[in-house]
């Protein structure tokens, strides 16, 4: 692909630059290549002068709302089957979604300061939570483990691929953990609410957060109104009985259901549903 065209590789490079901007101090940003000019507004709207490939346009549409935002930003991500399951009854989840969706997840990781998972996901999947499918920096791995369920032998505590923060009431022995692990000991349940967790992370300079799993953890952040955006990737398969993606309080009538603005994108054989839960003022 010619460098004079805004292709997916250049779009990803520019998205990384856009993510580093101070969107409190500016409302627009202009980037230029030899034959293309891209103008981005706070909130993620964009216009281009010159040729833009379809893949590049999709990247800009999907990811700029996650980058061109001031201050704190929290996004949830779930990969599920058509019948709303993220895993089988036994917890098997590799892989519900396809390769294109996994690349998308790694892009999200590269764009945030921290990726957060609950104890159930840490125990069941032992995920690396690093950026491998795309270029970019690994985020801080945050393991939310109030009851000390995650053993010290898990990869996140032993593999120094990325800095790791263990949030728990029951700290593990310092000698059992890698030097890359920091422990945040909480005493009160109030310190474990999504809002309190966001404040704790922001105090550490971790203002852009990806809540990656599992379903219960993402659901807590969603129910408490702490997500700015939610990406749900739906794969064309039926699991049947299994672990649900989203679990919210029961409602009596559909007029109280959440109906956020939603866009859809093809992602290989999967479909991405991009839900805007909080709007950004572009002015």
How would you sum up this structure, described in words?
- The protein is globular and about 55 Å long.
- It has a nine-stranded mixed sheet, sandwiched between helices. It has a three-stranded antiparallel sheet with strand order 1-2-3, covered by helices on one side. It has a two-stranded antiparallel ribbon with strand order 5-12.
- The protein has helices at 8-19, 54-67, 99-111, 119-125, 155-158, 194-203, 215-223; strands spanning 28-33, 36-41, 46-49, 73-81, 85-88, 114-118, 140-144, 164-168, 181-185, 208-213, 229-235, 242-244, 262-267, 270-276.
- Helix 1 (8-19) runs parallel beside helix 2.
- By secondary structure, it is of the alpha/beta class.
**Distinct helical segment count:** 7
Low-confidence stretches: none
Principal-axis shape: globular
Number of strands: 14
Brief sketch in words of this structure:
The chain is of the alpha/beta class.
Topology:
Elements lengths: L7 H12 L8 E6 L2 E6 L4 E4 L4 H14 L5 E9 L3 E4 L10 H13 L2 E5 H7 L14 E5 L10 H4 L5 E5 L12 E5 L8 H10 L4 E6 L1 H9 L5 E7 L6 E3 L17 E6 L2 E7 L7
Parallel strand pairs: 4-10, 4-11, 6-7, 6-10, 7-8, 8-9
Antiparallel strand pairs: 1-2, 2-3, 5-12, 11-14, 13-14
Helix pairs in contact: 1-2
